[in-house]
Amino acid sequence: MVKRIFAILSILIAITANAGIGDWVLYPSYHNATYCQTAGDKVYVLASGALYSYNTSDEELRVYDKINTLSDIDITHIGYCKDIKALVVVYSNANIDILFDDEEVYNITDFKNKPLPDKRINGVDIQGTTAYLSTVFGIVELDLEEYEFTNTYTTGLNTYCTYLFNGTLFCGTETGMYSCATDKNLLDKNNWVKKNNYFTKAICELDGMLYCYLDEFGIYSYNASNNILQDVVYNHGEKYNAMYSNGKEIIASAKKKTTIITSPTDVTVYKNSNSNFILKDGNHFWDCKGYNGIVKCIAKDGEIIVNSTAVTPDSPVRNYCEYMKFASDDKLLVAGGNLNYFDITFYDGTLMEYDYSGNRWNNLPEDTIKQATGIPYLNLCSIDEDPTEPGHYFAGSFGYGLYEFRNGKFVKHYSTHNSPLESVIPTNTRFVRIPSVKFDKEGNLWCINTGTKNIVKVLKNDGTWCELYYKPIEKLATMVEPIMDSRGWLWLKSLQGEAGIFCAKMNGTPLDSSDDESKAWLNKFVNQDGISYDIYQVFALAEDREGQMWVGTNTGLFVIDNPKTFFNNGVFKQIKVPRNDGTGLADYLLSGTYIKSIQIDGANRKWIGTNDDGVYLISADGLETIHHFTTENSPLPSNSIVSIAINDRSGEVFIGTDKGIASYMSDATRPEEKLDENNIYAYPNPVKADYSGNIAIVGLTHDCNVKIVDTAGYLINEGTSNGGQYTWNGRNARGEKVASGVYYVLTYDSNGNEGVATKIVVIR
Length: 764
Prior knowledge:
Layout: H1 2-18, E1 24-27, E2 33-39, E3 42-47, E4 50-55, E5 61-64, E6 75-81, E7 86-91, E8 96-100, E9 105-108, E10 121-127, E11 130-135, E12 138-143, E13 148-154, E14 159-165, E15 168-173, E16 176-181, E17 193-194, E18 200-206, E19 209-214, E20 218-223, E21 228-234, E22 242-245, E23 250-253, E24 257-263, E25 266-271, E26 277-281, E27 284-288, E28 294-300, E29 303-306, E30 323-328, E31 331-335, E32 351-355, E33 360-363, H2 367-373, E34 380-385, E35 392-399, E36 401-406, E37 409-414, E38 432-433, E39 436-439, E40 445-448, E41 456-459, E42 465-468, E43 479-484, E44 490-494, E45 500-505, E46 518-522, E47 524-526, E48 532-534, E49 538-543, E50 549-553, E51 556-560, E52 576-578, E53 586-588, E54 595-600, E55 606-610, E56 615-618, E57 625-629, E58 641-646, E59 652-657, E60 660-665, E61 681-683, E62 695-698, E63 705-709, E64 715-720, E65 725-728, E66 741-748, E67 754-762
């Protein structure tokens, strides 16, 4: 009994640590530190387009996101205003937050909402209580005290920096530095005078003199009275990535050097390494070292020396999530490649493991793999765990073969040289495309080797290989993701180009294709009304809990409701949703919607991710849209969905977008095969006075009838489980919060057998 209580307690801690039903969690990457600002004891860090802070006095690490503080995602610039004690946060869509030291936030959307063709902001320069936004069309002036835009100077110049000096506004652009006296009409572009012909990326002031950084040359002092540039320090082959003044000196940082200027003739250059930006803070520095985080440094013997450990929040290494899968109830695997065959961008090798119970991310090693294999480590598009050996992973690269890991360490690379894997270019053996890998229950690894004769190759659990030949899909370039369905049939989909679906009806011998009963390849979709569709993209294929196959395409959603007919040019059903407006008409469900991902939850409902319209939760039969989440009504990072994975035990749905990962705690879990009071529990339990969310009862069977009664046996609430979970809002039939006390959960299975499943303690 002690062991069971401990196990359930561990599960409860894991679930409640993440979210309650209906709650969202964001998982942005905080690894690539690119810029920082200080505010007293606090250091604000911009990393991977997200924001975190580190308090040097108590070492508190604080992350900020769209749920807990901020108004948006994808930050491009930050700047601290000492006069109002607030951080200016600028987003890629031109939204702006003012984040005060007490963490109050004021959101300014005026510029974001302006109907402009291009609102890109290249830089933010703060002087006093004015923030100058350097944009692709000129300068926008923001009053930080009044939270309003005071002026817009449309110069037509792609501007990177702005500085007010002695009554004259200077700006640096791609074509040179310009200025205009503030007593003239700055709105008239003809009043802006060109001062030089060089790409000016930064302007600042020291001891009454202007300094500017000219991209191709270096740092120069500028005499505004006679328009003379005087060189101070050259690039010497390495361009600076930032230059600013702290009032006492000018600091310019590059990847391998940091330059301190106290006067035009007093210049010190320090050696450095892997620096994106350096901030001088008193006698030490804060160095943003990209994926190595932010570190505290000192200057010593001509070098910037690290004298602290890196400060980086636990998070995904990148916001890449092409493929996600729960390898077990406690482990989410993520591969961050790119499978857009029409415009392939080879992403850095990205494999991540999320420890669900421990709420921690583990990013698999990258740095040593390229050196060990001698080929680029890029575009990892799938990953799976060996069911016979936890921690034993295989990952497929769309371009560079198969990789094996064990206990977080790289083990082996499979290519044309040591396996039957083939290159798509016969004359160059390195281009081995493995977009998908998947283990079967016996521990055999199924690999899709696109563009080859034998597209399906299997690394058997005894270490030997076998190849499966299917003539209809021979050498197709975009085959992915093998699915072995509940019938033992093999399904494959072709994403793009020659898009379609393949199925092999196996004869109980999955590793031998020669005796398959039937094979079929369909690339023309005809629905139940005889309407034919030319499909050019098939991105999603999933089997639901009733054996139906759900298909997501560029033109909408289809269902193979009777897979046996597939081998006879079967019909692709489109679900008709009645309009219920008295006309008797109906519309095809999600017709014309570009679908990228489909996953089935514990209640047989369909989570459908779209290319640009967020996520839909559809009822089991498809007739009801339960939720439609977008960036407008939820914390989703983006409406462009690339992957979905569901933790069947907790009901949490992980949604991968082109801007990072979010999760939503759903109300459906995996149903149990039979009711067992030892597996049924409620959370939170006890329910404390300050809790206002739903109470979940999990461990139930599918469509289990549930009744909640008080100690006197009076009925308080009743209903039916979603998959293996039932939710109760803690109220009685009149909608009133129940009083303190003990409440019993009664369950009735499909045979009408009644039992006391568990009890819930309410404390008001």
